[in-house]
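[scheduler] slot 2 assigned
[scheduler] job type: sequence-to-structure, two independent chains
[scheduler] chain ordering preserved from manifest
[runner] begin chain α
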Amino acid sequence: MLSEFKDFIAKGNVMDMAVGIIIGAAFTAIVTSLVGDLINPIIGLFMGGVDFTNNYAVLSGDVAEGASLEAARETGASVFAYGSFIMAIINFLIIAFVVFMLVKYVNKVKDASTAEEEAAPEEPAGPTAEELLAEIRDALKAS
């Protein structure tokens, strides 16, 4: 059973998936920073300087006016954090777009390499073994 598990883990697909998950986690941190540090302030600028991630509605509980989302959650109030949800959608769209661009580039490179292989001129085929033997036979008969 242990050897079967080692064979399963050693397969290329499992290793590729593990690498993909690790890179995906690192990529998520980069996109989260991109959205939180660069895109969110731009959106806030167009919304009149409002910090977009702190947009929420209090469903129940007492929250000080103008408190951040984190402060509202710390008080134990039930909040409808629509700003965080919208940021999650923006994160998803950015990640999906970047993955789309990566897949498109990889497919373009793959298609280009396939086209080069197809366009490569075939080397002229040499004579077959039967043809060589026939030539040798004919040469021996002539001598």
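[runner] end chain α
[runner] begin chain β
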Amino acid sequence: MDENAVRITDTVSIPMSELHFRFARSSGSGGQHVNRSATQVELLFDVAGSPSLDETQRRRVLRKLKSRLDKEGILHLVSQETRSQLRNREEVVERFQELMRDALRVPKSRWPTRPTRAARERRLEEKRRRSKTKRDRRPVPPDP
């Protein structure tokens, strides 16, 4: 990982100066260590105001990550898995990379296709077979 920028894709990298970190005491086990050390790391990234993203990328990220953003368009990620602040910081940056990479991925455009004749025939044959199975389960009507 480059010290000055977080590489998201081949064309997008976010300078570390745009990532803001807050530290707090973690919850959970750890004894006195957890009571005295600020090992929980919160990463804050201003998606709405980032100069590293062009307008198209910004809209895509805002749309795909809207459930993770606050009202100002700031992404919050928290890590408190390990007892080490450094490791938690590395882990939250890795998660940030994955999230942004997924959010920036352009979905492939899908060309509408028609089912082949064989596929249609298979479907209809399966419908006939299923219909016959259900028909055979019906009670036999009494002869008049």
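[runner] end chain β
[qc] chain β: The two ends are 85 Å apart (CA to CA).
[scheduler] slot 2 released
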